[in-house]
Amino acid sequence: MKKIALIGNSTLSKSFNNRYKESFFLETFYSTGIIDKTSCENLLANLYEYDTIVFTAGTILDPVWEMLTLNFTVPAFIVSNLLENNFKGHFIYVGSYGSLWTSWPGINLKRLTYNISKLAANKFMNAVTHSNIGDMSISVLNPSKFKSKMSNFEGMEVEQVAEILKFIIDSSGTIKITNLNLTK
Q1: What would the pLDDT profile of 86-119 be if each residue is shown by its tens digit?
Q2: Helix or strand or coil: residue 101?
Q3: How far lies 153's CA from each of 21, 107, 149, 158, in Å?
Q4: Where is 64: in which H helix or E strand?
Q5: pTM for this one?
Q6: I want to staple 99 with a disulfide (CB 3.0 to 4.6 A). Which of 119, 151, 162, 183 is the partner?
Q7: Residues 34, 169, 10, 158: what is their CA dihedral angle, to the nearest 10 degrees?
Q8: For the chain, give me the number of helices (H) and strands (E)?
Q9: Does the structural domain 3-180 have CATH classification 3.40.50.850?
């Protein structure tokens, strides 16, 4: 049975856990507190035993410092350390469609900062993938608005995104889904 670490107490993480807890060995690591380097290092020490690591953590609500740290610095730090220590599993970064369309007239500063932080993480994941550093597979999923706390529970069903996440986990290679927007 594949061992999966879910990082983040997100709506997607909860949905995936509820839906697939019989299919995988799942453990959730909450993102609270990992914005300081020591806590992030402690989390990282636990990740090497997993086949797949799924990073679903993200925030638009915190101060800019914490938003940039959680949305970009933490996943980049984790991936860098996994690569340096020859992790051979699969890292899946769940970003946001907002990283593909970062600004528009009238956007508020928090949304702009969120989009830019997700764009930076996407660029980092893509650059690492293209560099062929190490044997780790890196996949990126950028869903559009789905029913979660962050979207005021509007958009596509979170279960649809969980199904796509399972597809990525079941695959053996790197997958990049840049625009996931499913409608009925």
Answers
A1: 999 999 999 887 777 788 899 888 888 988 999 9
A2: coil
A3: 23, 20, 6, 9
A4: helix 64-68
A5: 0.90
A6: 119
A7: 170
A8: 6, 6
A9: no
